[in-house]
Design a protein that fits this description.
With 106 residues, the protein is mainly alpha-helical. Helix content is 65%, strand content 0%. The chain has helices at 9-27, 40-53, 59-70, 82-105. The radius of gyration is 16 Å and the shape is flat. The two termini are 28 Å apart.
Length: 106
Amino acid sequence: MRRNPVPNQSELRRFVENLTERLIAEAAPFHKPARDPNRILPLLTRIAAVWAANPDERLGQLVANAARVLRHGDCDPFYIEDEELVREIEQQAVRTRVLDKRRRRR
């Protein structure tokens, strides 16, 4: 099965920017956010970078694996703050790369 080429960072950023702008514009008349909507793009860009580097993972896997670590076995991410979740997703990607390098050396 042939895979599509992985989009580069600027393509991912453009996609996420456009999506974020559309979602904010659609929600604006109905909702006054308590949180800063400008936090969304940087967080999604960081997740997109990790996901693009690990295309065999599903988005749900990235989130659930990070939540399981942060919630000590429970993979429900509901009460985890965005920044904390994204930081753990990034840390897991680093740990995975280290383990992969060790496995290749054997």
